[in-house]
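User: We ran a pulldown and think these components assemble together. Before we commit to crystallization trials, I'd like a predicted model of the whole complex to look at. Sequences follow.
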Amino acid sequence: MKLVIIGGGPAGSEAALMARKIDRTAEIYLIEKQEYPQYSPCGLPYALAKDIENFEDLIIFPKEFYEKQGIKIILNQEVKKIDTSEKIVVLSNNEIINFDSLILSTGSKPTKVEIEGINKKGVFSIKNLNETKELSEYIKYSKKAFVVGFGIIALESAYALKKRGLDVTIVARKARPMRQNLDQDMGDIVIEYLKQKGINLILGKEISKIEGNEKVTNVLIENDLYPADIVLIATGVCPNIDLAIEAGIEVGRGILTNDKLQTSVKNIYACGDCASIKDFFTGKQIVSNLGTNAVRQAKIAAINALGGDEIFNPVINATITEIFDLKIGAFGLTEDQLMESKIEYAKAKYKGKSRAEYYPGAKDIFVKLITNIEGKVLSVQIIGEEGVFARTLAIAFAIQKGMNVYELSKSENCYCPPLSPTIDPLQICAELVIKRLKK
Amino acid sequence: MKLVIIGGGPAGSEAALMARKIDRTAEIYLIEKQEYPQYSPCGLPYALAKDIENFEDLIIFPKEFYEKQGIKIILNQEVKKIDTSEKIVVLSNNEIINFDSLILSTGSKPTKVEIEGINKKGVFSIKNLNETKELSEYIKYSKKAFVVGFGIIALESAYALKKRGLDVTIVARKARPMRQNLDQDMGDIVIEYLKQKGINLILGKEISKIEGNEKVTNVLIENDLYPADIVLIATGVCPNIDLAIEAGIEVGRGILTNDKLQTSVKNIYACGDCASIKDFFTGKQIVSNLGTNAVRQAKIAAINALGGDEIFNPVINATITEIFDLKIGAFGLTEDQLMESKIEYAKAKYKGKSRAEYYPGAKDIFVKLITNIEGKVLSVQIIGEEGVFARTLAIAFAIQKGMNVYELSKSENCYCPPLSPTIDPLQICAELVIKRLKK
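Assistant: Here's a predicted model for the assembly, 878 residues in total across the polymer chains.
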């Protein structure tokens, strides 16, 4: 059995290691275009913030680790062609590698943004390690940064740049942070927090021009010119699917897969940011873009590529982040999305405390739940400085097992005054939704 | 409708408030023998530690709050008799109150311990507010404290006394802390931690005599005499059931209830530490002794006492505590209990990190899971300085909904480097159990 894996990010590397775990004799090739073996892309903003000391700390395993496991790791090489009938891949150095099974884990790239002057020095994205390292150096000679976008990476980047001492402005077309996951009322809590932390917000507008000779010196937003040293583009990513398209593999937004993570070509699998998988809430194909799901897909893809028969369940895409001390956990459908899909829903929002009310240091925690009319949870939005991870993880597991708000409100929670209130905020919020469902 | 509630602790007070919520016109009596309305008994060790500034902070609602809701709250009065056929209760001042429905929430009292000299000044328990306040004063003139017992209250008390600057020794018959919930291997982690924090441990022994004239001056343990100022008895509690027994209501260890929390007498209900309820793992009747379950039972008892028809589900008795920075979350059956019940099981223990491996400040987290041969979780034991509450809450909800280790290992978790690793320690531990189940 010869397994070739294209892309050595979190998905590809995990697939290689999993394949080795279940098959001691398979020939395994892992091909990566960057000079590093797998590192944690989710850690990049925190390394930029210097919460993590060195960028190299993000490298999970050195090249030698893979080699010791008998994985042939090829760095600094791109695959330029896949021939599905000949079962070969062609590298940029024209080397040809044949395969029995192929896993595509080609990842994603920053969405292209059309702004005049975007190729100037001082414009960055933080999609990969080298570019983020460059940005980290560039910060030392900079004072003012503009972050374009309002998603999770934009928020984490703004935090990192602020922590590094820059004057930071977020510029976003829509006045709602993480709008895939948060409604406006919950987004406003984040906006308030960003303001408190001294981050400038220019919302409902966009940068029309980046000025400067070689280097960025100003950005133009409507008719206002702002001095700027750095422009960080964080408007999202799109899957790397060109290679798959050229090979005749079916794609949607990502490379289409079935519940075995098999593509339209029998012996070819896809996982990670390049793959399209099923959404738990809608049943539709989506691209996850989460590290958790990349790794989880990778394991299943590896098992099946080696002849196994494992199912990959639909994803809830449980998203969580930390910026400064604020944690935001969110997944499911926003009210916008529900209205657009004409799904009837009930909702409730509750502001509770992370610990017993009387316990010093208890922090506000905001919980919003949305359900369908049967009480099935369709959206979870949790924001606060403490206890957000706990509640997000707890409800994530619970709803994957099918727990509805009625069951949630009746479930036994865990209580100790320094850690939680007697009745969990999640459950109080569930009770509030139930009241509305009963009307 | 006239509802009388005996006992104004967490269960009784919650029952009164819930009853008022669902019935605006019912006559509600709440009778409490102490001078305070409901306070948080779980907060007492933390008030003793001075983590919570004043004992009075633990009082959830003042007397006036109940009165404003039209609840007749009677403090400093005990019920000395219940006549179930006449439907009356007789107070210690001989006042007679008739009822349509009665809720027993008489709570629990410290288990009696037979030690010579136990009535001397300086011997305490921390079961109620006044006694804990007295202890808090007594600490000011004390140097050396001995805590008898090794359960959760003993651990929390030892922590509190140490934090108050005393030299603290735990004396326990068995060398295993929280042995209802922890196996020896996990208990040893707690023991190691207590030692690091400078708490003395005398295990496998007991105090045979408390010496001193009026006040404690020494304790005798086997043939060794130790100077001592305080002896804190924390060997557990037993339910207050005398009143129920005298009234002819059926009891086991606690007052027996069905799944509506009704006692053997039709219009009489029981909830909280005095009530016997069904255990999730064994199906047997147990007394929970947890605040979460007291409050949850109280709601159901109130609903049903007013003519409702709600079911109280069996309890997992999810226990969690914090001592110093260590959190311990545990529930289910220990290996001892499983062997005694001749239940076949598989187990795994995993030492992971609370955050991404590379993230500064990541703490060790120890997870132990035990399942039956079908993979149903029978025991959860989690110990660490960070992230224990999250995992305990998450698996508590999940297994109440019936999630087994196979499903747990495949579930989507939440990941962000400062908050969690890519694959949750709970899930890695689940995978380890699965490996053993497959053998």
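The longest strand of chain B covers residues 345-353. That may be worth checking against your pulldown data before setting up trials.

User: Thanks, that helps.
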